[in-house]
Here is the input.
Amino acid sequence: MKWIPSRLALAACAAVVCAGAAAAPTLTPLTGEDLARPRKGAEEWPAAGRTYEGTFSSPLSRINEKNVKGLGLAWHLDLPTDRGLEATPLVVDGVMYFSLPWGHAMAVDARSGKTLWHYDPGEVKKVAKDTCCDAVNRGVALWGDKVFVGVIDGRLVALDRATGKVAWEVQTVDRSQPYTITSQPLVMKDIVVIGNSGADFGVRGYITAYDTKTGKQLWRFYTVPGDPSKPFEHEELAVAAKTWKGDKYWKYGGGGTVWGNMNYDPELDLLYVGTGNGSPWNREVRSPGGGDNLFLSSILAIKPETGKLVWHYQTTPGESWDYTATANMVLATLKIGGKERKVLMQFPKNGFFYVLDRATGELLSADKVGKVTWAKRVDLKTGRPVEEPGARYETKPILLWPGAYGAHSWQPMAFSQKTGLVYIPYQEMAGGYRNEGKEFVHRKGTFNTGSAFFDGTSFPRRFASGALVAWDPVKRKAAWKVPLASVWNGGALATDGDLVFQGNAHGEFVAYGATTGKPLWRFDAQTGVLASASTYSIDGEQFVAVLAGWGGGAPMVGGEADNFTGVRNKSRLLVFKLGGTGSLPPLPAKEESRRVPTGTDASGESIAIGSKTFHIYCSKCHGVGGESGGLVPDLRRTPYTLSAEAFRAVVTNGIEARGMPSFSSEVQPQDIEHIRAYLLDKEKKDFGQTSAKK
Here is the structure.
């Protein structure tokens, strides 16, 4: 059965959210079968990783290692945002669907790039202070005649696929708490599931299931226990509560937010969910006395109709390092020990590559992919890591690998059934941790790590590098590795054309040989590329599509190790084909500040107070040490800093239209003066000579 949007609906769309709604495509409602096995085979890309398996790979091979040098730009679309782009474009019935930062969503003609509609969630930038890692969004989900998108302010919105008009919306979080949504929904069996973000700021994680037709809540699964004086919301929490200590964790939030990709196995009827870090990070603060702190940093297998837990596996018991297990998971069938096994694979932040039996949760293997110093190995009998002495930094600070960026963050890895290899956006960067212990103060509107992680010192470039690693999950070793000079490179796409596509932090989009790792083609994207690409075919012609736009956590926090590449944000949708002859317009010349550093007459004490306050409230967007990644103003150089009055007005009142919230309830007037003194002194040190009084 096929449906075509009515003329009345299209007219309403054009008046509200559409641009160029003429020549509407014929749309077919999507089902679970379409998301498990796309009805047009390799031609379409209907889900984040193409199917419920989440492989981020395609059987298409018209573009292959022999002819990829002939790949060219078919068309591009400039996008109305200046924040990081992290979504993978979905393509069904000749229409491409994707999300933008803050929770915007768009539909365009997949042949030409002509905009069909654009959903704007309204005034949501006031929640910017609740975002830890840019106002990004990791994609939409399709089901039936609807498009589902999570909005930064916690709403789940169902849109009409043909018009972009709102069918229903529901607020999924308590807006008095620092919750946000940056993740992609997952839909199965007329159920749409969504998680949330905010563990770094002090929230309690959960996922919620809603009816796709009405938005009615069906169930909610909390990932950590709440107030012990109240009844458990569901029976699994009674077990989890026994693994937590003390009486403060629930006041601090607990964490465990679900902000990564989810998967579904139709045959086993299991929903797979990865959970996040503790809140605060440091277990000594949130759960003094120890404990595994279930279900932090865990993989959960849940029945989608009831929300009941079937099994769980915890990658990092008693998590203390921001080692989330929210990296994308891949469902596959591997021959292990001579036996076909239905497995789930994940390479989370902690540096171990896990292979689990996805029916039972049995751990089949866990191996270090790169530099890992917090644990010696994972004991396959117990499933637990064997930690290195002192790794928990209870008594003295420690420098260890991976740091909070992880050996692998959210950028999707891809699995090729043809080569049997998993292609991983690997990164190697240290982390410095110090136990705040009794010094810890829980503050609203900022990071609450309990580990003194953001202390004003950014890691130098020599501490950070990346790689594209081809990992053999059966042989349990790397097949090849392509070194990259920076962390924070893009997600992967594998195709049966023996190709792997990946963008990088240097502003390139590159095709590698899938069996060799040899770079075969590259394109200057003029901006950092973070998202995974998708590929599709129309009328026998194969296209590769990627959202290009620098941003996300690393550039926002800033520092030399993150931003030395110097790329800027230029948000675009890029689509390639063989013989494509398109080109990008040249970027405007970069404006260099000619301001002469003035320094400050403030005392050293004032500057020190300003540094501490800046790194509590400001560094999450304006960068550690004030070294911004270019997405927001560099406060060492902005004219606002020169004027005490202007600087005070911006911090107190905010500039909501630009995503700058008001900090009037967090920062006192004298603190603002201290922050300004720190920034003026930092400018002089970085661009001139310090004049601070001792």
Remarks:
- The CA atoms of residues 245 and 288 lie 6 Å apart.
- The chain has twelve helices and 39 strands.
- The mean pLDDT is 90.
